[in-house]
Design goal:
single chain; alpha+beta; 11-stranded mixed β-sheet; about 20% strand
Length: about 800
Amino acid sequence: MKDRLYLRYSRNDLKRNWGVNTALMAILVLSAFLMATGCMVMERLLGGINQLFEEAKPPHFLQMHTGDYDAKALDDFAAAHPEIESWFIEDMVGYDSPSLTWSRSSTGESGSLAASLIDNLFITQNKKFDHLLDGSGTAVEPGNGEVYVPVAYQEKFGLQVGDTLSVQTDAGARDFTISGFVRDSQMASSLSSATRFVISPDDFAALGSAGGGSSEIIVEYRLADVSNASALQTAYDSDHSLPRNGPAVTFDMIRLINAFSDGLVAVALVFASLLLVVIALINLRFVIRGTMEDEVREIGVMRAIGLPARAVTGLYLGKYSIMAFLACVIGGLLGSFATNLLTASIVKNYSASAPGLATVLTPLIALALVYLLVVGICRGILRGIRRIEVVNALVHGSTLNDRQTARKAAGQARRARRTSLGAGRGSINRRLSLADLRAEMGQWILIPLVFFLTSLLLILPMNLLSTFSSPRFVTYMGAPESDIRADVQFSKEVEATRGKLVRALENDQRLTNIRTYANVLYETRGKKGWETLRVEVGDYSANTVKFLTGSRPENGQIALSALNAKKYNVKAGDTMTIRLDGKPSTVTISGTYQDVTSGGHTAKMQGSVTEGAASYVIYAETVGGADPMTIAAEYDLQYKHASIVPMQEYVKQTLSYVTDAFRSAALLSLVFGLAVAALITGLFLKLRLTRERRRMGVLSALGFSRNELISQVRFKTVLTVAAGTAVGTVFAATLGEGLISGLISLTGIGLTSLSFIPNPLLVYLGYPLLLITVGFLASVPLTAGLRRGESSEWLNK
């Protein structure tokens, strides 16, 4: 009986106040939708990566290497470590992107892969583990003359099965027919510096002997217990006979790189959802308290006839519980459709995980949290019904007790004495509006709070997007700002190529400020002995790198990346022992910097190295308006053992997956933020205008025109919207930066302190103006209704 009563009351109230309830429902649906979608995207991403890892079996530890190596030393190392379950050496032939072209005989279309700046590695299918898979999860086995191309290239260049891929070798072009596309558990992310193509063993042998490519290897290990990967890396680094001319990567790093970009979308959605939930709860508090004030006499009657406070609370709580439940159901259903769209790239690049218990529980738990939070807050607000005095409710129509009523009256009297409408600047309408805002700030505070949160929702994702898209982000990659970058590595001709290239760059009148840095493999003491420390040696006197702590390294000093400083538990001013070719030396830590390359574990020393380095990086700046893209392309064609790229394009391609993720998050935040701002402004004004009809009737009787009354409401709306937006914008530009920086530092990618590189015209001018415009436009149709109706009727409200 009681349940039917609650249900009937809820149904009737939803019909009676359908406008307010619809707006409130929309906000709750958006909150549930974003929370469910964010959690489902994260579950699908982790499930897809786990599925791909289960099928492909990536290595738990790998070491890339260019040059000669001692195969027996690798055999001895594996034999000495029983934790190694399986291992092999993967041979690869690398070609730069301009050497690869494609054609389509059916349409006559053709193109080049030169726009890609990463290394292209041709391999044969691995037999033991680290398989490259087709769309069905099967390890591909190309026949002679066939090639399987990375999925990323299929998307980037629009390649199709049946197209011809041509590789330009020293012996001429070799043609392959594209038979399909592969998913690579090791090199799927844009953060990877290379990608792999699969060909047959016969074609691999022919390609290797044709010349024009660079020979490389990856030493890969699978362990009985993946938790031993770090210990194995330490043991590997301490053995000087093993190949190490290249980056070393662990299983955890592979997983992090794969999950980072798409995971950011999920985190951004959850963050947006939390902001919307906060907005919804603030709005609920306003609506519930307003409803209690409007229906206080009905509440007094129910209490007077003997209904307990719990029963009265149950009537109202039932309505909001139904709304929260329906919002979660609708939001969950919409989230399922949105998740399928947002995870299309995950399915293509990784794998479609089989539905399991987590697939069902993840959105249910997320939606249950939203439901319980909303109902819990409603229950807390509705406890105020217990404090309503029956006499005050019936006689005065007030939810306040005698003491609260007296305190409110005294406050109003003080404000009235301080308020003078006859003095001050501006029209009487403006002064009256400001006086009303001061008197009713407790009611109007909803608008600035909502627009404060909405400003964060819009500005923070866009600031992240502009930061990661900026050419200046290169400073977070441990590199100086420059126009052109040249990498000389993965070749026996490293020294000769470096010398010729540096001389050519220095003699080019279009270039200036040529800087060469050598990557040298030092060693330092770790927790379990000596281990490799990759050090970039060069001239840092021109403040080429931004340091978090300390300063640039001088002679006898070394600067460490933030992750290396944390790893070795050192800070600026401490000393550490390093050695090269068995000769130890003690250096002082000059400072720390941020770096997202090489797993975030790098170091820098002042000096010059003319030979014996593992690789070299050369930077150059253009003069006279020269085009970095054109110059880089010219040099890249001339020096086949070097990779010369425009720095802006290098950053863009390296972070393409990340920036795509932030772009999606920024767009969603913009759309939902504006929608919520408009909805809540409309909801607030609808309720506010209903309560202020009597006040406006009095003003109308005193001679204020309808247009003046409308102007007052719109002025108050714009003023409160602008105040909330301004505070939110300032917060996003200051404290918001620290908040986001802290969240990103938890990812472990090498960023510990992120400074925004915003688009100031957009986020600090365009977005605030857009929010103020939305707030104003939301008020227009509602206030226009004041032109209708009789003011005499307002006095009776």
